[in-house]
Amino acid sequence: METDSLLSGSLDGASGEYGSRTGSERGGAPGGRRMSDSVYGDSSSVDREPGDEELYIQQAVVFIEDAIKYRSINHRVDAGSLRLYRWYYSGIIQWGLGLTIAAVLLLAFAERPSSFSISSDPRHRSPAWQPPCGLTESIEMICLIILSVDVAVKSYLIGWEEFGKSKWLIGYTVVILISVMDWVLSVSMVCDEKLRVRRLLRPFFLLQNSSLMKKTLKCIKRTLPEIASVILLLALHLCLFTMIGMLLFAKNENGEWELHFRNLPSSLTSLLVLLTTANNPDVMIPAYSLNRCYAIFFVAFSVIGTYCLMNLLTAIIYNQFRGYLLMSVQTSFLRRRLGIRAAFQVLTSSSSSSLGRYIPSPSSAHVQTLSACLQLDLLKAFNMSPCILPLQVAQQYEDVGFMDREQFTKIFDELDKDCIKEHPPLPQYSSPTLQKLQLIFSHYYLILFGNAVALANVVCICTVLVLNSEKSTAERDNFVLEIINLCFILYYLFEMCVKIFAFGWQGYLSYRNNIFDGFLTVLLLLLSPPAHRSPRSSETEASGPL
Question: Where is the Ion transport domain (predicted)?
Answer without folding.
Answer: 130-321, 458-526
